[in-house]
Amino acid sequence: MKLFLSVDMEGITGLGDDTFVDSRKLNYERGRRLMTDEANHVIAEAFDQGCKDVIVNDSHSKMNNLMIERLHPDAKLITGDVKPFSMVQCLDDTYTGAMFIGYHARASMKGVMSHSMIFGVRHFYINDIEVGELGFNAYVAGYYEVPVLMVAGDDKAALEAEQLIPNVTTAVVKETISRSSVLSLTPEQSGKLLKEKTAEAIKNRNSVQPLIPLDHPLLTIEFANYGQAEWAALMPGTEIISGTTKVKFQAENILEAYKAMLVMTELAMHTAFC
């Protein structure tokens, strides 16, 4: 078995606000250690359950957060930015399954530090289906017929996963109080939970089907500010939907839609607020 781990940061145990996930702020180094330890719990159990190869993709911000010197010695790490497929870089049809660790709820939903790629996004749509990072990444996995076996993070991320992926295993390491406060397990408690849920997910892997995307998907991104929509619509093939802050792009497949999303959100971040 070969396992792909996409590890984000906002859904990691004990991380309640942006001081843990922003490299400029005081709790970031604590957040990095907790993130790395959490990945290690899943990696170790995956090897114990018979996985022969575990590839870990650092999926937060500049994607250089996981501490390789503390990572399980038998895993391999994808780190750094820019990556053409960001949170799902190097995922392909050679994998038995994928797991999303440290994940959070999509933009405009209740959940700790909820967002979709950037804070200027209100909603992502694939055709008429609203998705966040979790859903978009699951569709890319589905393109390669790889099922998402487990999602770990806060309670709202788990709920989002369960609504989107039948029979997915979820590991709730903290419960949302507000967007910047949580009721969290301790690292020791969450480590035990993650090992139990990883074993359960691997044993139940045949009960989870890949989330297969439609051909020629229509990507629509609703931004918070019209200036963001203007920037995003500079990408060829895009169009602002009149009277809205929504920008649409007709993609050939989900891979093209994913790259378009990355370009559109990067462009949107050039918007000045003054």
From TrEMBL:
Keyword Metal-binding in annotation: yes
InterPro entries: DppA_N (IPR027476), Peptidase_M55 (IPR007035), Peptidase_M55_sf (IPR036177)
Record keywords, A-Z: Aminopeptidase, Hydrolase, Metal-binding, Protease, Zinc
A Pfam family reported for this protein in Swiss-Prot or TrEMBL: Peptidase_M55
SUPFAM superfamilies: Dipeptide transport protein (SSF63992)
Binding-site positions, Zn(2+) 2: 8, 60, 104, 133
Residues the entry annotates as binding Zn(2+) 1: 8, 10
Single GO term (MF): metal ion binding
Origin: domain of life: Bacteria
Active site location: 115 (nucleophile)
Record-given protein name: Aminopeptidase
